[in-house]
Design brief:
heterodimer; A: 120 residues; alpha+beta; Beta-Lactamase; B: 160 residues; 6 strands; 44% helix
C-alpha cells in the first residue's frame, strides 16, 4: 500500500492533472493534496470545495449504482466547460483529480485506477 | 424540510440556503450571549432554549481552552456520533459575532458543511444591518434575552 503523499505525488505528475487529492470518503476533508499547477498568485484555491463536493457526489453515485444493481462505481468523470473532475474510490478514501480539458483522460483514468488498486 | 423561523428577518435567506445546501437536519444561529437569532428543524421552544444555553456555555469553555492550548480561541468544533454529527462554529460579521450549531447525518459530510458554512458567513457579513452591533449588546439578563428571542421564534407561551 502506497503512502498518501506518494499517491498524490505520482498522480499530480500525470500530464494534464491540475491537482490531485486524497480525500476522506465519509467527511470530504482533504487528507493529502498536491499544489495546483498553473494557479495564478492570489487566485482562489478551489481544492477544498472540490474535494468536499466530489466525495459527496461520489457517495451519491455509489448509491445510484447500487440502486441500479451495477455494483461499486469504478471511475467517475465530470466533464465541465473548462476541464474535468475525476474520482475513484479506494476503501475509506476517494482519489480526486482536477484535470485540464486537453489532458489525456485515458492515462489519467489508468493511473487513478492503478493508484486506487494499490490502496485497496 | 421546513423554513427557518427567525427573530431577525435579515438572517432568514442565508440560514435557509445553509440548511438546504449543506443538507442539515436542524440548526440554531445565536449570539454568544445565548440569544437565539434563527432556527430550523425544531418545533419546541424548550429544545432551542437548551441548545442556546449549552452552545453558549460550550463556546465559552472551548474559547478559553483554545486560548490556553493554542493561544487563540478554537474556531469550530465537530462531534461525530454513530448516526448524527454536530457542527458548531463561530461566524463573524463585522464586529458582531454569532454562533451556529447544526446537526447532519450521512446525507451530508463535514466537508460539505464547512464549505457552505463559509458561504453563510460571507452572506452574514454582506447582509448585516449597519446598526446591528449596537442593538445586540448583551444586557446581562441572560434568561430574559433568551426568553424574548424564543418568543420571537415560536410565539409567546400561552398565547397560541
Amino acid at each position: 500500500m502506497k503512502a498518501v503523499n506518494q499517491v498524490v505525488g505520482s498522480l499530480s505528475r500525470v500530464p494534464g492533472v491540475v491537482a490531485a487529492m486524497v480525500v476522506g470518503a465519509s467527511d470530504g476533508l482533504i487528507i493529502e493534496a498536491s499544489e495546483m499547477i498553473g494557479r495564478a498568485p492570489g487566485a482562489t484555491d478551489t481544492r477544498r470545495p472540490t474535494a468536499a463536493l466530489a466525495s459527496y457526489l461520489y457517495s451519491k453515485v455509489t448509491r445510484a449504482s447500487d440502486a441500479a444493481r451495477l455494483g461499486t462505481p469504478a471511475f467517475m468523470r465530470l466533464e465541465a466547460e473548462s476541464g474535468h473532475i475525476c474520482v475513484v474510490g479506494a476503501r475509506d478514501v476517494v482519489l480526486v483529480t482536477i484535470v485540464a480539458p486537453d489532458a489525456n483522460l485515458g492515462r489519467v483514468r489508468l493511473d487513478m485506477m492503478n493508484a486506487a488498486k494499490d490502496n485497496r | 424540510m421546513t423554513n427557518p423561523t427567525v427573530a431577525e428577518a435579515w438572517v432568514a435567506a442565508p440560514l435557509k440556503r445553509l440548511m438546504e445546501d449543506a443538507r442539515l437536519i436542524s440548526g440554531v444561529l445565536l449570539y454568544p450571549s445565548g440569544r437565539a437569532v434563527g432556527q430550523f428543524g425544531f418545533s419546541n421552544a424548550a429544545d432551542v432554549m437548551s441548545i442556546c444555553a449549552l452552545t453558549s456555555a460550550i463556546n465559552a469553555s472551548a474559547r478559553e481552552l483554545g486560548r490556553q492550548l493554542d493561544g487563540k480561541p478554537f474556531y469550530e468544533m465537530h462531534h461525530a456520533g454513530a448516526e448524527r454529527q454536530v457542527f458548531m462554529a463561530r461566524a463573524a460579521a463585522g464586529a458582531q459575532e454569532f454562533l451556529f450549531v447544526g446537526v447532519f447525518d450521512r446525507e451530508s459530510s463535514l466537508g460539505m458543511v464547512e464549505i457552505y458554512f463559509s458561504e453563510f458567513q460571507k452572506a452574514l457579513e454582506k447582509l448585516l444591518p449597519e446598526n446591528q452591533t449596537i442593538a445586540i449588546r448583551p444586557s446581562g439578563d441572560f434568561e430574559g434575552e433568551l426568553n424574548r428571542s424564543l418568543d420571537a421564534l415560536f410565539g409567546p407561551i400561552g398565547k397560541k
